[in-house]
Prior knowledge:
Blueprint: E1 5-11, H1 20-34, E2 37-44, H2 51-57, E3 63-67, H3 73-87, E4 93-97, H4 99-108, E5 116-120, H5 130-140, E6 145-148, H6 151-157, E7 165-167, E8 193-197, H7 206-219, E9 224-228, H8 234-244, E10 250-254, H9 258-266, E11 270-273, H10 288-295, E12 300-303, H11 308-311, E13 318-321, H12 326-338, H13 340-352, H14 356-370
Amino acid sequence: MTRSKRILIVSSEFPPQPGGIGNHAYNLARALKESNFEVTVLVDARSNSGKIERDFDSGLPFAVKRIAVSRVRFIMYIKRLLYFNTLKKGQDYILASGKFSLWLVGFGNVFGKTPCLAVIHGTEVNFKSPLLKWSVARALKRFDGVVAVSNYTKHLVDPLKLKQVKVIPNGYDAQIWTPKSNEAAPLLEGRPKLITVGRLSPRKGQTRVIGHLPRLVKVFPEVHYHCVGIDTEKDACLELAQCLGVQDHLHIHGEVSQDALIKHVAQSDIMVMLSTASPTGDVEGFGIAILEANALGIPAIGARGSGVEDAIQDGLSGLLIDGTDADALADAVATIMNHKTEFKKQALLWAEQHQWRHIIRQYIAVLEGMG
């Protein structure tokens, strides 16, 4: 009997803490395990006690090695390198995802012969700092292959002329994001109900939507915009809404449980992500929340010029617009609301194509091509 292939996944994020890179690494690890790979994950802990991570890891079908939180960050850097040098032995493949992982694997595997694959999401290859940009580029050149989660992300590294770059879109967890009968009382007010899921930031584009609310209110007097996610920029968003006189059309929910998140999305009409880049280069490389909404039959509106372009099948699962154009947003909302049945049908079909059972086949083909 042929033995299972062994793969070490080094990620900068991992559940139970939030983060798109962690979500991707978790689903990738699980899908590889279900495809008969022996999987080990190396990642930092984030809680000081580590208990929340230990409880989460105890139920996983693969091994996870966490680097404990230390007040002295340099100690964590050393531990990462030591654990990596130990765990990489006997692996058939090594996969790196996220900023520190690219550096750790790219520079820490100097004398290694194990095929190494980098997964790039967007921000980590779009730094404005010349030193950070140079260091990431040097690290990427040491990999045997690179997977970009969108054509937009691939475009960011085209000048590097890397050995091989394959675009593989993000997938979503179909076991969690599936349409269910919703007997609970409506959580969201408004007609139509727009929603954005993610940390309040330029990357997710909430302030762009708030800036367009005056125009939306003229067309849809009962429109309501719901923001769900880490709300560190809540005060700034509320202040903008008040200045524009649309505070009664905005609701910032903050972080919610997974069950509550699904209910919030399922009760909305349209997912909106008018992404833009931050001054430091933070960008949306794909937009997994869009696929998750699609899986519930919720179409999306996204901004061109970001990774969101790959997450929306324009004219079918949703619409792509100029994120700076309030009239374009109002027109897109009207188009979807006037054709909700067809957009819902196409959103469900688009999401199905991004289930991990399909996506993982592309990753396995890339890995086997490097071996």
